[in-house]
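Onboarding guide, step 5: your first structure request.
Type a short instruction followed by the sequence, for example:

Predict the 3D structure of this protein.
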Amino acid sequence: MVTTPPFVLVSGPEAVLADRAVDQVIADVKVTRPELEVITLLAEAYEEGELSVQASPSLFGEDKVIVVRDLHQAPEVLQVDLLSYLADPEESVTLVVTHASGNRGKKVLDTLKKAGARVIEAPAIKSDRDKADFVTHEFRRARRKATPEAVQALVEAVGKDVRELASACQQLVDDTTGTIDDAVVERYHGGRVEATGFKVADAAVAGRTGEALRLLRHAVNVGVDPVPIVAVLAQQLRQLAKVGGAGRGRSVDLARDLGMAPWQVDKARRSLQGWSGDALGRSIRSVAAADVEVKGGGRDPVYAVEKAVLTITRERNGER
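The system replies with structure tokens like these:
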């Protein structure tokens, strides 16, 4: 049986992980105290004295979990009230405090830790490597197998938002059986904007001019904005440059040093065949110019992207 201490600190900026940590604490407390009252106090909307009122024993004697959200945004009155409560806590209350980052609320944080608070980390999930690890863990939690290619495809298709990524994993778990592979991910998410951008970029970086232009024009015809396509082109080329300049070594080691996922290093190494450093530099400059045009600096954003794609394929194929 899990024993929950009277104070819990959820520390870190990743909202999905923080929310899960809070939900798990509440679930753990309910195991032994099912008649539990859960109260949430938001830092930005906090009124002086509210914590002491909510922490006071109720008429019916129910135990409480009080969740104080966003200490990193807490006004002075909330910090003062928290320090006062920590000096004289209620036995029937479990206090859970979330803090994303920064120095605001530092005295409260230090006091919580000195009081023996359980600290649950909710680290940021930003890089593709972090997102790939997150997806792998999601499927492992659900006791489902997923191929590395499936993880890659899902990150590419849905990886912009971690909460959406978690939902996509849950959907695949709920709606499919057996091993989750890239074909399954393609069926559910292959038509998304991000996935479309990666398909265009993959074809361009490989020098497949006709395919890259066809995919691009199809994307535009179905309403895909050129901006995310240019962003993916830039990302792919930057990864080629980073891996190309990193020298030899194991994919896992390079991925850690470069802030990439191992499969991205392997993919970049395969894609580097046929590329020179100068060709990569010219391609990166052409995509930077396209980025300016699609964000309002040019008259024809679609033409700007087509021009960048043609430059990339020509440079890849040694056509000047």
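Each response can be followed by summary notes, for example: Residues 62 and 178 are 44 Å apart (CA to CA).
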